[in-house]
Amino acid sequence: MQFLTIQKNNKVGLAYIPELSYEQFYEQVLDYLQDPSNQIVSYYGIKKNERISMFCAIANDQTETIYIASYSVADEPGVVLASLSLFHLDAFYFEYQIQKKLGVLFNFPN
Q1: How far apart are alpha carbons 38 and 31 in whole angstroms?
Q2: What is the tens place of the pLDDT at every residue in 24-58?
Q3: Is the model's pLDDT at 110 over the cut of 80?
Q4: How do the domains of the chain map onto residue ranges?
């Protein structure tokens, strides 16, 4: 499964945003961020029942394209995910906010 691709200033319903495994999400984000024209513009989570749904948007300013995907994790203590910040420091702010507000832990660089 891939990220959904839309053009800038378009809307999309949550039902159309693909949900990936975290491993798929992580690898695809790293692939997108290899292109210096791509940057994470949004990455946040929403608690729903006993899960946390995470949403990420990556924008390419040159093509005015936005790539969107999601994944979900259990809403329970001790969930630790591989940090994108290890490879792209720009992800640190988003992961820090997710950790602070939702309790999902990332293995941040030291």
Answers
A1: 10
A2: 999 999 999 999 999 999 999 999 899 999 999 99
A3: no
A4: 4-100
Tokens matching residue 50: 């006993």
Find out whether 91 and 83 touch, Cβ atoms under 8 Å: yes
End-to-end CA distance of the chain: 32
Burial environment of residue 98 by CB neighbours within 10 A (0 to 12, 13 to 18, 19 or more): buried
Q: What is the 3-state secondary structure (H, E, C) of 49-94?
A: CCEEEEEEEEEECCCCEEEEEEEEEECCCCCEECCHHHCCCCHHHH
> Alpha-carbon distance 6 to 88, whole Å?
23
How far apart, in whole angstroms, are the C-alpha atoms of residue 31 and residue 99? 23
Predicted local confidence at residue 1, as pLDDT: 66
